[in-house]
Model the fold of this input.
Amino acid sequence: MKASWQRIASIPLMILLLLGLPFASAQAQSAETEQEAPAVETQAVVLIYHRFGEDEYPSTSVTMDQFQSHIAELTSGRYTVLPLGQVVSALEAGETLPDRTVALTVDDAYLSFYEHAWPLLRDAGIPSSLFVATEAVDRGTPGYMTWDQIREVAQSGVTIGSQAVTHPHMPEYGPERWQRELAESADRIAEELGARPDLFAYPYGEASLEIMEATQAAGYRAAFGQHSGALNETNHRFYLPRYPINVNYGGIDRFRRLVNSAPLRIEGLSPRDPTLPTEGEGNPPTFGFTVRDDLARIDDLACYHSDTSQISQFLVMGARVEVRFDGAFALGRTRINCTMPGTDGRWHWFGMQYYVPTP
Done:
């Protein structure tokens, strides 16, 4: 993530308008976005892993030493580790969760989960969820689990979710392809395991508002991306955040910061759609949001951007945060992370991933 950004704090709206910068007003959002806040606050940290001990894939793997240190931290008595479905149920019902609730997820059903991670999790009594892209398993692709192995971990209590059939870049395709990927993957999992999955993980964390609607229509009750942040009741239930963990970002100090993080609760997000136009109006986006949390430390709020274009303006106007970029987002994925230190020493974190499809 780039750490270079320009920040202008406490700028009145009139000055912003004089600067000629578009203001993504919370009042301009739809009634759907501006619903009354739920009476009960729900929060949890959801982690995402892929591979374990596969040193040739550092961007998607953790070392076994790192993973064992994560297990030791999670079993230290400071945290409540729950099955992912239970966290989703609390969101649906508007129920509180224990402080420092954590859920652990694994994408892609690589063999190293079965051989290296699952035995450790099972012995430690830590629940986990496995998202399966069915085609690789059906084909017997080397390095992936078999249906017998997936059945074994499911029978031990691992939650099985879907990650589509072919693990595609879903925003590159249309509704017919989305519907087929969503339905056929659930059908195959139900055929093999006897239970239809109701949780979905977007391949590469890529989605759009239309894809979210299709996911809900396909019978899933929640879906997850790969953008950072502590899950909470202000998130879209079909685009929930998870913290990615890999070799470069798997050290125990950072791990502790993540599992002790709190949500940065926001409203009036602009743009709401995680898929941006390839060019023209809307790329770069006029990114902004309103902070609903305690504003005691908002002057210390910072945002970071992973793309080649840089943050050219960063403005805080009361509870409203506005970010502007000096160029269009490149094709593919871009992540924005915004963090604010809390008065209790824990970091409040909001992240968003945007995707720019090929022309």
